[in-house]
Amino acid sequence: MPEQDNTPQEAAVPVPLPQTTALVLSTLAELHRQETGAEEDVFRTLPFFGTALGLVIAALVYAGGRLPRLPDLATNRAVIAFAVASTLAGLAAAEAVCVILLLFRAVTLRPYQRLGPEQSLRDRVTALQAYYEGLGTPSGGRDNEVTQDMQHALIESYAKVTPINRAFNARRYRWRYLAAINLLGSLLLAVVATIVIFGADKLGFLPKVVP
Fold first, then answer.
1. What is the reported pTM?
2. Tell me: the pLDDT tens digits for 69-86?
3. Integer Cα distance of 97 and 69 in angstroms
4. Contact 158/115 with Cβ under 8 angstroms?
5. What distance in Å separates the CA atoms of residue 141 and residue 151, rounded to the nearest whole number?
6. Which of 17, 64, 114, 202 is most buried, by CB atoms within 10 Å?
7. Each residue of 37-76: b (16+ CB within 10 Å) or e?
């Protein structure tokens, strides 16, 4: 019976994959760039929200200027029209306030993670150069070793900070989505309130407002 070889097997040394490492590094760098660029998306949409809120305010100003005082209402129809219009205008104003608060929350959520600082990366390169120089690695091979180590370090950094930034962006997008929903509701309520006031005025339900 042949004797079994009990000599411990040496652990397989991982083969460097420079092209794969470079591909992964460039992909993670692009993903990180996309997330940091998405940080400004909320600011780019602020003019749209501002214009829409301006329309809401204009409609509410018209409604407030056209609605008579409650003691001046002489008929049930006038009271009903007043109650409906004022309720719709009040809800539109509340929705507009919610839009501002939600946008404020989205804009002020800025705990983004960044790579670096730059000096720490330079210090790491210097330390790696000294390490491989101490091992007696030739200058050409030393550069390759330092490059590979820095690539792996950057991959680890990208893999750490990018998911954090993505989570922050998801939260910002949710706040902006909720602001957009409230904005549409505010616009709709303001338009309906204006229509109610205009229709009640043309039908003669509301008394003329004395300046």
1. 0.72
2. 766 667 787 788 788 888
3. 25
4. yes
5. 15
6. 64
7. ebeeebeeeeeebeebbeebeebbebbeebbbeeeebeee
